[in-house]
Amino acid sequence: MAQWLYRLGRVAAARRGLVVAVWLAVAVGVVVVDRVAGGETVDNFEVPGVESQQALEVLDERFPERAGATAMVVFHVADGSVTDPDAATAIGVTVAEVAGLDHVLAVTDPLASPRSISPDTSTAFAAVQFDASAAEVGRGTLDALMETASPAEEAGVQVEFGGELPTLLKERTTGPAEMIGMIAALIVLFVTFRAVLATVMPLGVAVLGLAVGLSIVGLLGSVIDIPSVAPRLGTMIGLGVGIDYALFVLSRHRDQLEAGMAVEESIARTNATAGQAVVVAGGTVVVAILGLQLAGIPFVAALGYSASIVVAVAVAVAVTLLPALLGFAGTRVLPRSHRAATVPEVAGVGSTAPADAAEPASDAAPVAGGHGGWVRWAHWVAHHPWRTSIAATLVLVVLSIPVLDMRLGQADAGTDPVSTTHRR
Q: For a Cys-Cys bond, which of 25, 189, 306, 338 suits 199, CB 3.0-4.6 Å?
């Protein structure tokens, strides 16, 4: 595999314009096709074969009117009572609109029973029963349900929606988390590499690979059910492995340039060494994630398919697109102060292809900066294996202590932001 990756790296560097153009065309193509023909994510958490699923199926068969999704409409008056004439009239209009929605079997009257009114009469709730599951009802019905709040809100009544339907079909966003992560990654990369191109390149290829991977997942959604959490999972994994694999390649390439190797030769050898590590690591991750299908749970298997697609694309980007971009960058991936000591940026100057498959991996350039702090630290660790092993184990044990008090359970509306209606 080393010789094949060596040749792939050399071709990618020599025909870098074509490689970049192909990747851009692929990215635009899959994104557009996904927008046109991609499937929608679903919230179907059925687990075939387990007793709870069998109970739901019996309920659906014997009592279909109770097997559908539910929702709760909560009415609150800050100054006054829900039984005041104006508030009660507005609440009645909203309840009537809810009862007229598609898929709604029944709605309780929030003012008909003391059990649905708070002791101070400032709050009341109506229970809504649907004729199908949340996945079958869909977000369209949820949006229509939200719109029924207008009559009551215009009368000064606060209206919030909770229960199964709003919680399962909520809009899932991570807020600024991805942007904060990208900014943090840029800062760390710049401090590490001290070169603008070397800082931006890993993040850029990771984002492009993520866009392609998520679009392919969207297309897969037209064939199988993809859980709504899959894009978020893919984003986290895709950014992580995409940047990580790019760092493997870029770090090796920089070391070889600083050691005096020609740009194109360095790219080829980097692909044969660090690129091989990327392929092996990525392949291992893909196989491990695909093992989720052994659980026999469809939505868990779909999560595995989604994550494995994103990782596979990240590997492909790292050994094809990144070498092409490195060919464009030349020695500009090095700090400005280090470029004068390197060879000219003419691709392949003084370089020859390896004689056999082992040569690209074994005949690597010496690593520059052999007296750096990390090198000294690595030597110290290697010469004191027992001390470092014991110290590392103690640190891990201390960090693991909170596991003893960890409480497991299903996330509910209480874990969502206070800005969401189902949390309020």
A: 189
pTM for the whole structure = 0.70
- Single out the residue in 146, 168, 190 at which a domain terminates: 168
Residue bearing tokens 């898929």: 103
Do residues 118 and 252 share a domain? no
141 shares its domain with 242: no
- Report the b/e string of 292-320 with b at 16+ CB within 10 A: beeeebbbebbbbbbbbbbbbbbbbbbbb
Q: Say yes or no: 181 and 296 in one domain.
A: yes
Q: Who contacts 128 (Cβ-Cβ below 8 Å, separation ≥6)?
A: 70, 71, 72, 73, 98, 104, 106, 107, 145, 163, 165
Range in 58-72, 285-299, 337-351, 356-370 the model is least confident about: 356-370
φ and ψ at 293, to 5 degrees?
-70, -15
Question: What CATH number should be reported for the domain holding residue 250?
Answer: 1.20.1640.10
Give 257's pLDDT tier (boundaries 50, 70, 90).
Answer: confident
**Which tokens is 145 given?**
């349900």
In this structure, the number of other CB atoms found within 10 A of the CB of residue 201 comes to 23
Residue 240's nearest CA partner among 202, 292, 277, 274 is: 202
CA–CA distance, 424 with 414 (Å, rounded to integer): 9
| Inside any domain, residue 146 | yes
Q: Which domain holds residue 232?
A: 2-43+175-369
Average pLDDT over residues 314-328: 92
Contact yes or no for 210/238 (Cβ under 8 A): yes
Say if residues 6 and 268 touch (Cβ distance below 8 Å).
yes
Residue closest to 364 by CA, chosen among 250, 259, 245: 259
Q: DSSP letter string over 225-262?
A: --BTTHHHHHHHHHHHHHHHHHHHHHHHHHHHHHTT--
Q: Which residue has the higher pLDDT, 312 or 337?
A: 312
Number of domains in the chain: 2
Does residue 412 belong to any structural domain of this protein?
no
